[in-house]
Amino acid sequence: MSGMDTGLLAVNPGSVAKAAALLRRGQVVAIPTETVYGLAANALDEKAVERIFTAKGRPQDNPLIVHIDSMEMLPMAARKIPKEALLLAKAFWPGPLTMVLPRTARLAPSVSAGLDTVGIRMPAHPAARAVIAAAGLPLAAPSANLSGSPSPTTAQHVLADMKGRIPLILDGGNSPVGVESTVITLVGTPTVLRPGFVTANEIAEVLGGPVAVAAAVTAPLAAGQAPASPGMKYKHYAPKAEITILQGNLAQFSHYVAAKATGGVWALCFEGEETEIPVPCVTYGKKNNPATQATALFSALRTLDEKGAKTVFARAPGTSGVGFAVYNRLLRAAAFRVLEL
Ligand code: TXA
Ligand code: MG
Q1: Among 53, 58, 65, 187, which is best to mutate for testing ligand 1, by the most ligand atoms less than 8 A from CB?
Q2: Beta carbons within 8 Å of 133's beta carbon, 6+ residues apart
Q3: Could you tell me if the CB of 36 is within 6 A of ligand 1?
Q4: Cα(226)–Cα(237) distance, integer angstroms
Q5: Given this model, what pLDDT does residue 236 score?
Q6: Does this model's pTM top 0.90?
Q7: Stretch 321-337: mean pLDDT, rounded?
Q8: Which residues pair with 120 in a beta bridge?
């Protein structure tokens, strides 16, 4: 797989046409979306989809999300389209919401990794929409990181992970949302499997009924427990450092970290707090502004790796709005280590 030349092209009509041509030939192309960069391939072509798994080093049992650019494409992926799906599509598509629905037989088998369902999303990013439209195909696309690394929010992040593994990366700048889409299953009781920019409350309001949140969003799975979403069982977004989230105020945080200050100890904090903290810091957004935390978190985790951080203490984000998704990703990066100060 390695050794392939990897092109990095700004998004324009020429590069979009090139991406579409590669996709129609069964190749894998990284594209920007509003959430994170995706590693796209023709969702109807088994060989093409298998190339995604190879490029990412993704476990075979973790299914992919299928990206569409219109409601006309939905029946290519979903066998049954309940009225809840139409309501949510009207409210949140195009946008950062993935719905799990019964799958069609047309999709490549590996897309669903053996499940009878498929996650489907209509992205809002103009480049993603242009590529899907130019290819004229539904595109299977997981996040464009190596399996286990933080999701990429810039083309440079994708290049760091995918150089030599794929022929083309489209550069669309920074991902505006910064965390992956909300995943909700509509098979059985509507249940959020992964929190994102679209919240469970917003979904409940549109559906006019309760929406569950899977337990695995905030707690580790017990040994042997089957996850509702296969992705939940994998260690995610994990930097090389051991991260611990510290719940408490800035003074308590600084005091705790001061006692631990040795080489290799870093803090992950909010902008402007660096001067109060007695170890080197990487920031992720502003304290009471979860949207800025969402756009900065994955980049900050990559920076900590580059700095050679061994032990990281992280300021805890709030959990309202997209903050809940930020907290979920940080919890997973920290392997659920949280300390109350
Ligand atoms: O924002 C996003 O969703 C990005 C961009 C590229 O669209 N994609 C993304 O894909 O985050 P990925 O593969 O990294 O995450 C997909 C998640 C995984 O946790 C997977 O287990 C879950 O969705 N998933 C996919 N299909 C599923 C299904 N049929 N049932 C349950 N969970 C599913
Ligand atoms: Mg991913």
Answers
A1: 65
A2: 69
A3: yes
A4: 21
A5: 63
A6: yes
A7: 95
A8: 66, 99
